[in-house]
């Protein structure tokens, strides 16, 4: 039995006992009993009030503390469609670098209507092989050049000599023609160190004296015959007038040409040929250039060949 119930029972029994002991009259008994019961009830009420549990205070709601996780969550992030474009390997596919003028240095003087061959050396600095690419006239003075010339196959990192046959205009002056490389999709590719990062050019002067400018080699045409073990290289050297030419050969393996080559003496503008050989059986691609020491101080031409 609960403590409060036992306490009430005791008070009631006590009140009844007192009532039984004090009964002088009916009225007195009644009044006495009522007084005792009233006192007992007040006492019970007071005890119940003191024993009543206090209502708990309302506690503020506090956000639960989440456990610390030191491991990166395994989630898949959504990709935004508004991000800036990222450079890819495809954007680096077609790149070229201008190396040097192989023939006809800028400002070379020609006679009116004189023909010459202009050669540039470029390098494939992109990630794609040039196959089906072409050398095309861009703007300026075409000087009778073709609209397009096939380049052939050029692997990434490989250098190539690009040549066009031109004709000097029939009027005195300075002339410049711009050329570019077009890929097999018809897109013009950028050229590092080119004119405004796009094209490369040929610039000549036409004098009234017909080749009366400074004596110079204007072009060199190289050809290869033979095969592994005995390659024969021929160079056709063309000048714009009378003078003396000295030269040496340059090989792709870095060998130094220490031979003494006879001077080429030109009595007038024209072409003379020189030859050399390379006895190699090493596999791989090879090339040989000719360096015109006098009068140009310039490397000309390139003969490409290979052993299986």
Describe the protein in words.
- With 308 residues, the protein is mainly beta.
- It folds into three domains: 44 residues; 119 residues, Immunoglobulin-like; 95 residues, Immunoglobulin-like.
- The longest helix is centred in the N-terminal third of the chain and has 26 residues.
- The radius of gyration is 53 Å and the shape is flat.
- The chain starts with a helix and ends with a strand.
Structure summarized in a few sentences:
The chain is mainly beta. 15% of the residues lie in helices and 42% in strands. The strands form four sheets. The chain has a five-stranded mixed sheet with strand order 2-9-7-4-5, with no helix packed on it. A four-stranded mixed sheet has the order 6-3-1-8, with no helix packed on it.
């Amino acid at each position: 039995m609960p403590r409060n119930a036992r306490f009430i029972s005791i008070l009631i029994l006590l009140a009844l006992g007192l009532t039984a002991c004090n009964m002088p009259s009916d009225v007195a008994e009644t009044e006495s009993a009522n007084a005792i019961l009233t006192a007992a009830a007040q006492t019970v009420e007071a005890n119940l009030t003191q024993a009543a549990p206090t209502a708990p205070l309302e506690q503020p709601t506090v956000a639960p503390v989440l456990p610390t996780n030191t491991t990166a969550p395994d989630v898949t992030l959504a990709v935004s469609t508004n991000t800036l474009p990222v450079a890819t390997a495809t954007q680096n596919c077609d790149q070229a670098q201008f190396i040097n003028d192989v023939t006809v240095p800028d400002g070379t003087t020609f006679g009116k209507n004189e023909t010459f061959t202009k050669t540039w050396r470029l390098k494939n600095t992109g990630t794609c092989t040039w196959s089906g690419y072409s050398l095309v006239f861009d703007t300026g003075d075409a000087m009778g050049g073709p609209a397009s010339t096939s380049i052939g196959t050029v692997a990434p990192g490989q250098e190539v000599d690009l040549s066009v046959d031109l004709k000097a205009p029939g009027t005195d002056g300075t002339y410049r023609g711009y050329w570019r490389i077009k890929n097999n999709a018809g897109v013009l590719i950028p050229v590092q160190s080119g004119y405004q990062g796009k094209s490369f050019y040929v610039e000549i002067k036409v004098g009234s004296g017909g080749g009366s400018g400074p004596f110079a080699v204007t072009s060199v045409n190289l050809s290869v015959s033979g095969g592994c073990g005995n390659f024969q290289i021929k160079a056709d050297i063309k000048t714009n007038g009378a003078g003396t030419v000295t030269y040496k050969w340059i090989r792709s393996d870095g060998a130094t040409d220490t031979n003494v080559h006879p001077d080429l003496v030109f009595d007038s503008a024209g072409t003379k040929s020189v030859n050399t050989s390379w006895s190699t059986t090493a596999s791989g691609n090879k090339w040989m250039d000719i360096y015109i020491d006098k009068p140009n101080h310039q490397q000309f031409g390139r003969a490409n060949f290979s052993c299986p």
